[in-house]
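testing teh design pipeline on a random one, pls ignore if ur not involved
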């Protein structure tokens, strides 16, 4: 029994772990990305009083971010496919960091809408770049786990923001909270440009690990236009699932602090611990969801069965959120929402892996961009809807009902459009 275990450990050591350092850089970038976008969500209940915007106007501010994010995702995937991850990622973080800090200059609804618009444009580059990097650095069987790890940065950012932002805002003013992440972005950018290279050009990468990374069957290197990608049902499966479930995560990010403030009377400092609990659970869900599918694959399950079983388990975790809107106890609501955020992030770790499962590496950025565009359009719709809903009824229940059903419906759509998760044959016309 000990000999095979020792051999397995020796084989892992011989292959090398450099690709996981790359994954750590993606985790850091995603964390910074979500800190930047979450600052407004944490401060929203209190900026609303200071600046005087209505629920509908706050919905418009969120919609401005979503509109730019949608536009950016349409362009970001293709730009990153063209420029490569090293330069494409660097440009994205430059744009979103400057935009994040520009919030400190805003003093009106229009000012915040402009700042959010440019933040959305820059932040749109993060996931296409990160997922393309995963496709370049990991064999297919490791991609869901690697995606789950870097995607957990969205939860780490959402954890750090409610701990950091209130302290900075109360001691130095709310403007300083928007400026604080500039230093983190500068350090990441310098490290990325000095250190990152594609696997074939990275001198620190061993030949054994490069062979491991390239152990999947070779893929064609020709450029594929959107028109050919969108002829395939696999693309629409990803696009539809993003459209249906991304808006729920946007709601969590931008309205949970307002929900906890209005429904449970939490102060700026009081928001910290409940939001940390919610997003710690989301972090666990992100890593576990990616690990679960990988575990099923290692047990001999097909990619189709493994991915969809993991996605079903995650979708079921979101269903109980329908009871959170009317929970009288704060911690009952927090745990129900935390279970839902864990389910969403586990779902996303698997959903975000589908483009690299279903399409060649050189098209992953474009496919992710198209799906992200659809998710951002859905986010625009839920932002405007939520603003009008709260202004007229003050009730969060309809949004929580939507959240509880969205993931199961999305999984059904994915299964109908891609019943076996077979890779798209972009060299031949799809079946009618």
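output:
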């Amino acid at each position: 029994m000990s000999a095979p275990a020792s051999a397995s450990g020796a084989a892992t050591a011989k292959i090398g772990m450099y690709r996981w350092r790359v994954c750590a850089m993606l985790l850091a970038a995603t964390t910074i990305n979500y800190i930047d976008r979450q600052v407004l969500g944490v401060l929203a209940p209190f900026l609303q009083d200071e600046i005087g915007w209505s629920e509908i106007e706050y919905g418009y501010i969120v919609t401005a971010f979503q509109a730019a994010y949608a536009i950016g995702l349409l362009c970001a995937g293709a730009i990153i496919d063209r420029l490569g991850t090293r330069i494409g990622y660097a440009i994205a973080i430059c744009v979103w960091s400057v935009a994040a800090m520009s919030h400190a200059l805003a003093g009106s609804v229009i000012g915040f809408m402009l700042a959010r618009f440019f933040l959305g444009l820059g932040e749109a580059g993060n996931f296409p770049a990160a997922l393309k990097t995963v496709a370049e650095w990991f064999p297919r069987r490791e991609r869901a786990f690697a995606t789950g790890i870097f995607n957990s940065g969205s939860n780490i950012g959402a954890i750090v923001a409610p701990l950091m932002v209130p302290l900075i805002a109360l001691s130095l003013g709310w403007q300083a909270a928007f400026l604080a992440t500039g230093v983190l972005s500068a350090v990441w950018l310098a490290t990325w440009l000095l250190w990152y290279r594609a696997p074939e050009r990275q001198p620190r990468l061993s030949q054994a690990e490069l062979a491991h990374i390239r152990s999947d069957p070779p893929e064609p290197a020709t450029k594929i236009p959107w028109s050919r990608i969108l002829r395939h049902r696999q693309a629409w499966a990803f696009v539809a699932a993003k459209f249906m479930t991304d808006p729920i995560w946007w709601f969590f990010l931008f309205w949970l602090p307002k929900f906890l403030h209005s429904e449970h009377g939490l102060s700026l400092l009081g928001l910290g611990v409940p939001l940390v609990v919610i997003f710690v659970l989301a972090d666990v869900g992100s890593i576990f969801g990616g690990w679960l599918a990988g575990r099923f694959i290692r047990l001999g399950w097909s990619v189709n069965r493994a991915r969809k079983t993991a996605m079903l388990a995650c979708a079921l975790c979101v269903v109980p959120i329908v009871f959170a809107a009317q929970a009288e106890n704060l911690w009952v609501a927090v745990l129900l929402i935390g279970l839902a955020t864990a389910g969403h992030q586990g779902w996303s770790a698997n959903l975000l892996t589908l483009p690299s499962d279903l399409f060649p590496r050189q098209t992953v950025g474009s496919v992710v961009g198209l799906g992200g565009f659809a998710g951002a359009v859905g986010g625009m719709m839920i932002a405007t809807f939520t603003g009008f809903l709260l202004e007229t009824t003050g009730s969060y229940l309809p949004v929580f009902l939507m959240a509880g059903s969205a993931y199961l419906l999305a999984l059904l759509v994915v299964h109908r459009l891609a019943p076996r998760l077979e890779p798209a044959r972009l060299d031949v016309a799809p079946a009618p």
